[in-house]
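To: structure desk
From: M.T.
Subject: fold request, one chain
Message: Could you run this one when you get a chance? Sequence is below, nothing fancy, just the single chain.
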Amino acid sequence: MRDNPVSAASLGVDVQKLRFLIHDDLHLHRDDGSLAEPLAVALHGVMRSGMKPGDPVLVVGAGAIGLTLVFWARRLGAGKVAVSDLQQETRAMALGAAGFFDADEDLSRRVNEHLGGEPDIVFECVGKPGVIDHCIGLVRPRGSGGCS
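Reply: Done. Structure tokens follow.
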């Protein structure tokens, strides 16, 4: 718990104006505006990963960030993109994933068979303890990993 919590009011921000800033001034619907943050986070992650055209990619976690990582990885030239999660297969495939895998103990073998080897880049998009260590074990030696 912080001793000096920061609020919008303490920073002099008019929350009512901020709430409608994007909607009113840019004529952007709220539903579309809500995609700005996950799209920006995912694009930043792909750009920082050093991904090159043709690189096989694994995205672990198919929430908003994971699915937008699939979108950007495919649009920026990734080879096959595989996704691991407990659900969201239809959405992952619609955004460009070439394969979808349930998260279980056999994940590494199945992903490697599908991608033709270990992924060059693994993105961790789950945020639970232990998942980062698991993802490190999935990436090829000297590969790249990202947490989003």
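Reply (cont.): The mean pLDDT is 82. Let me know if you need anything else for the meeting.
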